[in-house]
Design brief:
The complex is a heterodimer of chains A (196) and B (162). By secondary structure, chain A is α+β, with helices and mostly antiparallel strands. Chain A has helices at residues 9-17, 22-34, 36-56, 62-84, 90-114, 143-152, 174-186, and strands at residues 131-137, 156-159, 166-171, 190-195. In chain A, helix 2 crosses helix 3. Mean pLDDT of chain A is 73; it is low at 87-97, 111-116 and 118-127. The mean pLDDT of chain B is 85. Classes of the chains: A alpha+beta (196), B mainly alpha (162).
């Protein structure tokens, strides 16, 4: 079948899409000028593509269906949390109190050591609003390139790859988050960027 | 998840519609597909693109749906095509008529229709389609080649009937 033909299916598809190299395009142009059945095949391919595009026009935007999915996800997430919610035992309360005591002591020591009223520490509860982005990298992206891009954006990976290969990264401030989002959106290495 | 949904849901819907004729059934399958994407996100391997991975889930959901409905027999598509080529001149004329072309695409088996849709509409390579359809790339090349021949023969037949 195709083995005996001068062009592969991918060659013809690239030609139809206008993404074939100049050399390949010239060869296919010449071949179809000499071979009516090849010309008919290519005209059919273009006809099918155009007919499918016409058929798809006027479909509702995906945003409508998203709301239904969002509701289902929230319902499922809530249902998953309920049976798994641990009961708070006395030992857990004790552990939390002990942790708070250690934190308080550490904070006090740190304040003394700087000799200032503005402590050099920051507890987890003081970290304020999180500045997190979800990023999906293009397939085959080198880990070294990913690391360089994240360094450039001052982003730190906190999770991932999770949802569909998405990484979650944290930024120090809202300004850094905005700048990082712009950097990622402009990068060819990144397929998806989303605020979290 | 919203960004991911908005980026891929249309492609999933079109792909599902290439195999399932009913818009409402297709919408349900898209919903199930994207819910499965959310559930299985941690299992995503980056050897495939996100789009290929999501479409392969859509393919499985669609085939499950078709099997449950038992309306379409999911046999391997018949790849035997008569040797004689349809008249090039007739086909070139008929291929300009979108309604006629759509009718001929509708006559294809669901496996042929899916391959044609992914190749001609979603601009995927044979290797990418093979990942979605979970068959060797050679099988996809054969399906596309035979689908084209079947469409051309159908177009010629339509013209002769008229």
């Amino acid at each position: 079948m195709e083995e005996s033909r001068p062009f592969t299916e991918d060659d013809l598809l690239a030609y139809m899409r206008g993404t074939a190299s100049a050399d390949l395009s010239q060869r296919i142009d010449a071949a179809q000028a000499a071979d009516p059945s090849l010309r008919a095949e290519i005209v059919t391919m273009i006809g099918v593509r155009d007919a499918l595009r016409d058929e798809d026009a006027g479909n509702p935007p995906a945003d409508f269906a998203w709301r239904k999915l969002q509701a289902a996800i929230e319902k499922e997430a809530a249902a998953e949390q309920r049976p798994g919610q641990p009961r708070t035992g006395w030992w857990q309360v004790a552990a939390v109190l002990l942790g708070l005591a250690v934190l308080g002591q550490g904070a006090y020591i740190s304040t003394i050591s700087t000799g200032s009223n503005d402590p050099s520490y920051r507890t987890a509860s003081q970290s304020g609003q999180e500045h997190v982005l979800a990023i999906g990298f293009a397939p085959g992206t080198d880990i070294a390139d990913i690391s360089a891009l994240l360094r450039q954006a001052n982003a730190r990976v906190i999770d991932g790859p999770g949802a569909s290969g998405l990484y979650r990264v944290t930024l120090a401030s809202e300004g850094d988050q905005t700048a990082a989002r712009e950097l990622f959106e402009a990068s060819t290495l990144v397929e998806v960027v989303a605020d979290e | 998840m919203r960004e991911l949904y908005l980026a891929h849901a249309d492609a999933v819907r079109r792909f599902v519609r290439s195999r399932v004729r009913d818009d409402f059934e297709a919408a349900d399958i898209v919903h199930d597909t994207m819910l499965a994407v959310w559930r299985n996100a941690s299992g995503f391997q980056q050897r495939a693109s996100v789009r290929t991975w999501i479409l392969s889930i859509a393919r499985n959901k669609t085939l499950d749906h078709i099997r449950k409905q038992s309306r379409v027999k999911l046999a391997e598509p018949d790849e035997t095509i008569p040797d004689d080529d349809p008249s090039a001149e007739t086909v070139i004329g008929a291929a300009q008529d979108a309604a006629r072309v759509r009718a001929c695409v509708d006559e294809l088996s669901e496996a042929h229709r899916a391959a044609v849709h992914l190749a001609f509409f979603e601009d995927m390579t044979c290797a990418e389609i093979a990942e979605v359809e979970q068959v060797p790339a050679g099988t996809i090349k054969t399906r596309i080649y035979h689908a084209k021949k079947l469409i051309m023969r159908c177009l010629e037949r339509c013209i002769r009937k008229d």
